[in-house]
């Protein structure tokens, strides 16, 4: 994106503030008007530099707002501190002041007070009178759950006319561009082309009168019941402990059975050793007996031989 294209982009968004904030024009025919706005803007941008697609230009505008918003947050944080404190980003680099063009983008997005002052934080800066234009807002999701945000956003932006708020539950923020089709809460009357070109309306919608004023306020959408995650976690933990204890018990029983088997095998081995010893002893006795018998037979044979020899000599 060239410098000229960026300048033309910011100038166009400055002339169409609601379109710059949410990317959606107000009214019942907001889809067609949004497409026409983007087509008109892209035609101007592509005629003054390298051409891009609609999706690319939408992403470029979204990234530009995010980058400037983050930079303004660093500067606002440094401004709250006492002394001559320089703004430093997450990487430890010094953040330069906003340029005139960047300040214009900050104003389009509703001011530069991006970093909230948390409740209970101490600050040595003198208190300033409250600005009636600045109110804390809470983001309401489509599911009905209210997420209380700590950011401060302008309902009446500096140097700009008031922002049209169609419903008290609508979220007022510097939203990103999304092609979501018609919004859920559309304005009752479609703004004229002259009003669209000149920016948002300068009047805040008043409370309806007549029969519609007597209707009861439906109030915020019902909250979705929260899941008892803690109870589920406790039940899961109990089940896990129970399974672990059963596993330990089974392991102990298996170890006891293996010990009994080893003892039985030791007893059998002892019995076999006793039998082997008895057999060895019996074999030894048998050998000794056979040896004695052999010696006796030898002596007897010797005597018989001598007797036979004596008889032959006498003859």
Overview of the molecule:
The structure is a single chain. This protein has 315 residues and is mainly α. It has a domain at 3-117 and 133-178 and 193-200. The protein has seven helices and two strands. A two-stranded antiparallel sheet has the order 1-2. Strand 1 and strand 2 (146-154) form a beta hairpin. It is rod-shaped and about 165 Å long. Keywords: Transcription, Transcription regulation.
Classify the helix fraction into a percent range: 40-55%
Q: Please tell me how large the radius of gyration is.
A: 49 Å
Most strands sheet: 2 strands, antiparallel
N- and C-termini, Cα separation: 152 Å
Protein name: Regulatory protein zeste
Pfam family, one: Myb_DNA-bind_5
Region (Disordered): 110-145, 166-235
Biased composition (Polar residues): 202-213
């Amino acid at each position: 994106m060239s410098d000229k294209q960026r300048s033309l982009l910011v100038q166009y968004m400055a002339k169409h503030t609601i379109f710059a904030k949410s990317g959606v024009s107000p009214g019942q025919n907001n889809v067609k008007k949004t497409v026409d706005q983007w087509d008109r803007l892209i035609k101007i941008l592509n005629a003054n530099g390298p051409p891009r697609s609609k999706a690319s230009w939408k992403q470029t505008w979204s990234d530009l707002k995010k980058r400037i918003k983050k930079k303004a947050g660093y500067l606002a944080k440094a401004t709250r501190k006492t002394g001559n404190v320089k703004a430093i980003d997450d990487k430890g680099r010094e953040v330069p002041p906003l340029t005139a063009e960047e300040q214009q983008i900050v104003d389009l997005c509703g001011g530069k007070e991006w970093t909230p002052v948390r409740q209970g934080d101490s600050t040595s800066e003198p208190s300033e009178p409250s600005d009636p234009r600045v109110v804390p807002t809470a983001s309401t999701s489509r599911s009905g759950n209210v997420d209380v945000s700590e950011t401060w956003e302008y309902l009446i932006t500096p140097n700009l006319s008031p922002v049209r708020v169609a419903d008290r539950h609508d979220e007022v923020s510097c939203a990103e561009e999304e092609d979501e089709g018609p919004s859920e809460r559309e304005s009752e009357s479609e703004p004229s082309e002259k009003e669209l070109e000149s920016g948002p309306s300068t009047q805040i919608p008043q409370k309806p009168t007549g029969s519609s004023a007597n209707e009861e306020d439906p109030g915020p959408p019902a909250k979705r019941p929260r899941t008892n995650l803690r109870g589920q976690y406790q039940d899961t933990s109990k089940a896990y402990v129970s399974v672990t204890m059963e596993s330990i018990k089974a392991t102990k029983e298996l170890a006891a059975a293996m010990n009994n088997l080893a003892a039985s095998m030791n007893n059998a081995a002892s019995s076999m050793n006793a039998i082997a010893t008895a057999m060895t002893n019996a074999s030894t006795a048998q050998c000794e007996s056979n040896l004695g018998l052999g010696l006796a037979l030898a002596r007897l044979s010797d005597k018989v031989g001598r007797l036979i020899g004596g008889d032959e000599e006498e003859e």
